[in-house]
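Bumping my old thread because nobody answered last time. Still need a sequence for this structure:
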């Protein structure tokens, strides 16, 4: 395999890249294609996006899989137990890094000897050849990280309402690296260090606004907008690569002047994207790996009665998720995206009439739960809890807002209480009760060191 060729997991799509050139400025783009398959019995993890990481020399790919099967000397694990693997391109067999369960968003050290990754509740690092993981910081839900040649790790510790934080790669006290400037509806995410190890690019995402790329440095003396309507930028070989919806673009970037030059060009489209994050990785030398937009697969919804007899099969060109059946059994509430967007909204599906109806319209709704009378739907929006009438009429009503993510699970039969999952004092996702009477505050019913979720009354 030519190590400068572009690679992709399975059959999801391949991306163009470029080769080194002796000419001044960025070398020309040279498109080639290769394929990588997952280990036997496993699948590449594609949600949330960001489970691919090329090593600095472009010779190895770290990736996350799920869905273990017995065999080949592997222990059995559940479908949700995401494991971290490393594939060296001069070796046909990938290497599993033991002890890395529930992994997401891996990234490499600058020397290629170590990997950092996130688990449920922690940022950890591990030697690329294996060994015991080391915990660096506690998190609630991550939006990516990056490792500088100066030994600093930047990371996003929460899904929404958080700045970037920094921590020494050898361990130490974490502290904020960026400032929200009093904006509680903003999150900083997807950081990427530039080669000097002091400047970095990151994404700023505000509620109901397009993302923007910012350029900042570690000492806090610089932080300004680099471009709008762009997300998760990565620097490689004289270019800044970034996502705009499901399209990857690139533009020359001057490291001396720290500014973009020239005009943007399309690199590849469509690319898989979740929550504003395009699923791709690039090495400093310019090798690119990405996954193709998963919407090409669509979704197939099958409905059965209580005796297991098929009632209806519904074909959808877009993804469907988070199904919840209404108390009278006539409707489904679900998360659905539009053909031209990777963001989800809450919809209902009328089982009898075979009709979809859109309930929310801001592109950030998921995990619906019905009220016992079937008149309301509670759901998560931007990490907070809201409700809206199941008919779609009226406005979205905020139920509870705070730092950290929350997911509605169930609504009590008396209609007075919502059960939800949220981050507790332990830093793990636990179960909480939200009383709906005015002035009442939520309280945790399980707040231990383990992740507790999907609760039901």
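Sorry it took so long. Here it is:
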């Amino acid at each position: 395999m030519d190590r400068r060729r572009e690679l992709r997991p399975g059959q999801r799509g391949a991306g163009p890249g470029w080769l080194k050139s002796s000419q001044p400025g960025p070398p020309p783009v040279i498109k080639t294609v290769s394929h990588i398959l997952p280990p036997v019995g496993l699948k590449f993890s594609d949600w949330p996006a960001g489970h691919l990481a090329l090593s600095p020399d472009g010779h190895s790919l770290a990736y996350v899989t799920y869905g273990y099967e017995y065999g080949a000397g592997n222990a059995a694990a559940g479908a949700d137990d995401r494991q971290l693997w490393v594939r060296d391109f001069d070796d046909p067999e990938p290497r599993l890094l033991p002890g890395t369960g529930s992994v997401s968003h891996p990234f490499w050290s600058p020397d290629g000897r170590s990997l950092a990754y996130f688990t449920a509740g922690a940022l950890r690092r591990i030697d690329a050849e294996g060994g015991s993981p080391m915990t660096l910081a506690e998190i609630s839900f991550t939006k990516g990280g990056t490792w500088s040649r100066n030994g600093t790790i930047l990371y996003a510790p929460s899904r929404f309402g958080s700045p970037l934080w920094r921590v020494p790669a050898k361990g130490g006290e974490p502290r904020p690296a960026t400032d929200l400037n009093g904006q509680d509806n903003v999150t900083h995410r997807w950081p990427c260090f530039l080669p000097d190890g002091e400047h970095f690019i990151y994404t700023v995402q505000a509620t109901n606004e397009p993302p923007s790329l910012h350029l900042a440095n570690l000492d806090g003396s610089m932080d300004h907008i680099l471009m709008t309507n762009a997300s998760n930028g990565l620097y490689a070989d004289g270019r800044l690569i970034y996502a705009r919806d499901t399209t990857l673009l690139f533009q020359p970037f001057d490291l001396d002047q720290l500014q973009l030059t020239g005009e943007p060009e399309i690199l590849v489209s469509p690319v898989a994207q979740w929550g504003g994050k395009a699923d791709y990785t690039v090495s400093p030398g310019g090798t690119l790996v990405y996954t193709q937009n998963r919407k090409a697969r669509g979704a197939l919804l099958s409905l059965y009665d209580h005796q297991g007899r098929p009632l209806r099969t519904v074909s959808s060109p877009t993804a469907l998720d988070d199904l919840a059946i209404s108390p009278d059994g006539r409707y489904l509430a679900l998360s659905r995206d539009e053909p031209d967007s990777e963001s989800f909204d809450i919809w209902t599906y009328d089982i009898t009439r075979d009709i979809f109806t859109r309930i929310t319209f801001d592109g950030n709704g998921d995990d619906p739960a019905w009220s016992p009378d079937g008149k309301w739907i509670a759901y998560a929006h931007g990490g907070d809890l809201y409700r809206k009438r199941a008919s779609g009429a009226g406005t979205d009503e905020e139920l509870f807002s705070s730092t950290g993510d929350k997911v509605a699970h169930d609504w009590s039969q008396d209609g007075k209480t919502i059960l939800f999952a949220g981050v507790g004092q332990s830093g793990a996702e636990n179960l909480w009760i939200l009383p709906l009477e005015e002035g009442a505050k939520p309280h945790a019913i399980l707040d231990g060191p383990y992740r507790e979720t999907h609760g039901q009354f």
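The mean pLDDT is 83. Let me know if any region looks off to you.
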